Amino acid sequence: MMKVTQTAPSATVSKSDFYSHITRVKQAVDKVASYVCILIVGLMTLLVTWQVASRYLLNSPSAVSEVLARYLFIWLVLIGGAYVFGLREHMAITFMRDKMPRKLRLSLEIIGELATSVFALLVLTIGGYIGMSRQMAQLDSALQIPIGIIYIAIPLSGAMTLFYCLYNQYGLFRKFSSKQD
């Protein structure tokens, strides 16, 4: 008689599996954010071109295109800022930090990511959500949409920044705990 043994799948996921999974999620968020930014820039280009053409060629400036371009610019700054932060390509003065020993440098980077996480959570995500919720009843005069729709970019960029911070912190902790000096 042949005995068949089945091994149960492990309930715990190894650290490298978790990191590779979260890296794939980050890459998907990066891709969506980059496409959203590209789309916004394209729309802004069309709106501003129409604004200039209607103002100078038709002598009838379009108020809607001007307001919409302004709101899209706000979205571009917030979403693009979170995206660039996730790529770790934001402005930083690293001269002093780069001269420090590896463990101290990583510790300072972790503290910086933690401070940014707190800001992203409290001010952008929670505060932005509260502000957005309070503005849902007020309509924009030109577009006739709730102002809260425009404010959605604040908690969205906060959530993206928080995700990127947590991802970066996990990577920094992995580097910190590695044996390399």
Structure at a glance:
The chain contains six helices and no strands. The chain is an all-alpha fold.
Helix content: over 70%
β-strand percent reads under 5%
- Class of secondary structure makeup: mainly alpha
Task: Please outline the major beta sheet.
Answer: none
Low-confidence segments, ≥5 residues, pLDDT <50? 1-11
The pLDDT mean sits at 87
Counted beta strands: 0
Over the alpha carbons, how many angstroms does the gyration radius reach? Answer: 23 Å
Order of helices and strands: HHHHHH
Q: What is the 3D shape?
A: elongated
Q: What count of helical segments does DSSP give?
A: 6
| Terminal-residue CA separation | 56 Å
Which features does this protein show?
mainly alpha; 6 helices; elongated; disordered N terminus
